[in-house]
Amino acid sequence: MIKFLDLYQINQNHREDLVTAFERVLDSGWYIMGKELTKFEEEFANYCGVKYCIGVANGLDALILIIKAYKELGVFKDGDEILVPSNTYIASILAISANNLNPILVEPDINTYNIDPARIESLITNKTVAILPVHLYGQLCDMDAITEIAKKHNLKVIEDCAQSHGATDLIGRKAGNLGDAAGFSFYPGKNLGALGDAGAITTSDSKLAETLRALLNYGSHVKYQNKFKGINSRLDELQAALLSVKLEKLDEETEYKRKIAETYLREIKNPAIILPNVKNSAAHVWHLFVIRTENRAGLQDYLAQNGVQTVIHYPIPPHKQLAYKEWNDLSFPISENIHDHVLSLPISPVLSPEDVAEIIAIINKW
Ligand SMILES: *Cc1c(COP(=O)(O)O)cnc(C)c1O
Questions:
Q1: By 3-state DSSP, what share of the chain in percent is helix, strand and coil, each rounded to 5?
Q2: Residue 75 region, left (φ>0) first, then alpha (ψ -120 to 50), else beta?
Q3: What's the confidence (pLDDT) of residue 253?
Q4: What pLDDT, on a 0 to 100 scale, did the predictor assign at position 173?
Q5: Could you tell me the pTM of the whole model?
Q6: Ligand 1, atom 2: nearest CA belongs to which residue?
């Protein structure tokens, strides 16, 4: 069986350094808000090219806290609207609802699966305060077009970078540095994955960063003094130390995944399969390699019978979820088409060239 994602093997590749980091934290006697967190925050800010990185407990909290901070700063208020892609993972949308703002769904471009800038402007109202682009599956959105619209209408741009660590635009700017603030997830299966839950916010806005630092720690800048009704969403020393280890190898692992993606793109020749579109190689970090096909269930069963595990990202669009009953009767045909036909093939830093060749041969025989 070729696994969709072999997390055991992925982390075994870093075993020695992870164990060293674990022992260092264990023996430090200091487990929350210490040197390891500061070190990782500096490293990740440098990596993304921003002034500040703020570690948090997970990717959803990262997005929730950014919006909450803009509320505390008086930039957003209850009932305001944020434009978000209709085919994203539901977390991007939950972050808006959790703050009592209204998510406004925007259909994606069927070729890139990312929010379609051409559909944004007609949805802007006098309540719109932000655009929340999601670099889905690891490929950057059209940030030039999005930034231009945001500037024109005085909107904030909040990037959801949970799937796009290290994705780089044509002038060398990285995901996390392409808007006003960005949320990252380090969930174990993400391109930069912790050994548990973890996340971060990146921004170059000092006021926002300062507010976020308090909000994630009970709303407190000074111990036992609470300026805001905050939450506890700290990134602990252990995960920070482990993430520092894995960040060192992130670019190498991404390059390896790019090679796999190039091989799939070059050698999958089955006319029943629609391959992903790549605009520029650096702008895609291949969190997922997502194909589309009319008979998805047939292909998934066939691959399983032939020993290849695949996953659907995602089977139900957000507007059809019970959590958003109020949207269940709305129609987002592009998203529905995507959710009905996408299938993710194995791609990872530990998928061997032999496995890739085997997967391609099996698919081409279908
Ligand atoms: C994983 C993910 C999140 C949430 O991250 P968690 O760390 O699981 O909370 C948010 N947005 C997108 C697009 C994701 O893929």
A1: 45, 15, 40
A2: alpha
A3: 98
A4: 98
A5: 0.98
A6: 162
Report which protein residue has its CA nearest ligand 1's atom 14: 162
CA distances from 195 to 23, 62, 258 (A): 15, 18, 24
Residue 241 CA to ligand 1 center (angstroms) comes to 21
**Nearest-CA residue for atom 6 of ligand 1:** 59
- Cβ contacts of 72-76, under 8 Å, gap ≥ 24: 72/211, 72/215, 72/228, 73/207, 73/208, 73/211, 75/129, 75/156, 76/101, 76/129, 76/130, 76/156
| Residue carrying the six token digits 């590749």 | 13
Whether residue 46 is predicted with pLDDT greater than 90 in this model: the reply is yes
Ligand 1 lined by 91 (C-beta under 6 Å): yes
Question: What residues contact 165, with CB distance under 8 A and at least 6 apart?
Answer: 175, 184, 190, 191, 192, 250, 254, 285
199 Cβ inside 6 Å of ligand 1: yes
- The CB of 59 under 6 Å from ligand 1? The reply is yes
Q: Quote the ligand 1 centre to 115 CA distance (angstroms).
A: 17
Place of tokens 């800038």: 117
CA 211 to ligand 1 centroid distance, Å: 22
pLDDT at 279: 86
Per-residue CA distances from 281 to 42, 249, 274, 285, 345 (Å): 27, 19, 18, 8, 19
Determine the atom of ligand 1 nearest the C-alpha atom of 187: 7
**Which positions are catalytic?**
190
260/286 Cα distance (integer angstroms): 9
Ligand 1 pocket residue status of 95, Cβ below 6 Å: no
Ligand 1 centre distance from Cα of residue 272 (Å): 30
**pLDDT tens, 260-295?**
999 999 999 999 999 999 989 999 999 999 999 999
Atom of ligand 1 nearest to the CA of 136: 13
Exposed, middle or buried: residue 180 (CB in 10 Å: 0-12, 13-18, 19+)?
Answer: buried
Q: In this predicted model, what pLDDT tens digit does every residue of 4-45 receive, in sequence order?
A: 999 999 999 999 999 999 999 999 999 999 999 999 999 999
